[in-house]
Amino acid sequence: MSTFMVAASTGRGRIALGVLGAVGALTAWFLVSANSGNAYFPPLSAVLEQAAEYWSTPEGLANIRASLTTLSAGLAIAVVVGVAAGLVIGQLPIVEKTVSPTLEFARAIPSTALIPFAMMLFGVSPEMKIFLIALGCVWPVLLSTADGARRLDSTMIASVRAFNITGLQRQWYVVLPAVLPRVLVGVRIAIPLSLILMVTSEMVGARTGLGFVITQAQATFQLLTMWSGILVLGILGFLMTFLYALAERRLLRWCDPRRSDTR
């Protein structure tokens, strides 16, 4: 048992367990739905066949590409704005006290509740979806970055002052590397949020994207296409999380020797 726990605690062990869990879940889904005669819960084999048939067509690929484009743009804006604002708020107490009530008010409003407002501003356009994704994903990045900047090591700050490192040089070479672990935590939380907001924004007035396909398939009783869209969405979420975990491990090698891949 102890040998198993040690193996599971390594990077490769965690990946192996994750793959094993995913295979187990798909196997359970396959077995439970194998003899299903319910149109609302079709067999997994039929869903996979429909997914391969539709999502490999130019139309299906165009919808995936449209979703990934808006998601990437919204998430990128959220990260840039969240990191920049978080660094300012975390390092300047007077700014934190000034904007804290406004931030708490804005953060409490669900992004989906602002869909009518976003449609009035941008119309039914990619900019509307990007705005909603950025608005919903900026908060975990901003708050996590501000918390990291607020807790900077006092010895490091004293050393920076002693060497007279100021301005952008201080922020880029000292503060940002110090808060990077907290920034990455915020981004990790923002990734699944971006998927949720992407699909939600595409279900209202959109003409392209995964959310649009799922909604249209449900409305026209094309349930296999609907389930295949849900399956593709889950696969995209898994791939994004997996690739981000690899990038995060590489970025944080310098602060945690256990993340090193050296043998």
TrEMBL record:
Membrane-crossing segments per the record: 71-93, 105-124, 130-152, 173-199, 219-246
InterPro entries (alphabetical): MetI-like, MetI-like_sf
Keyword presence, Membrane: yes
Membrane topology: Multi-pass membrane protein
GO cellular component: plasma membrane
Keywords: Cell membrane, Membrane, Transmembrane, Transmembrane helix, Transport
ABC transmembrane type-1 domain segment(s): 64-248
PANTHER family: ABC TRANSPORTER PERMEASE PROTEIN MJ0413-RELATED (PTHR30151:SF0), ALKANE SULFONATE ABC TRANSPORTER-RELATED, MEMBRANE SUBUNIT (PTHR30151)
Name of the protein this chain belongs to: Nitrate ABC transporter permease
Highest classification ranks of the organism: Bacteria, Bacillati, Actinomycetota, Actinomycetes, Mycobacteriales
Gene for this chain: ssuC_2
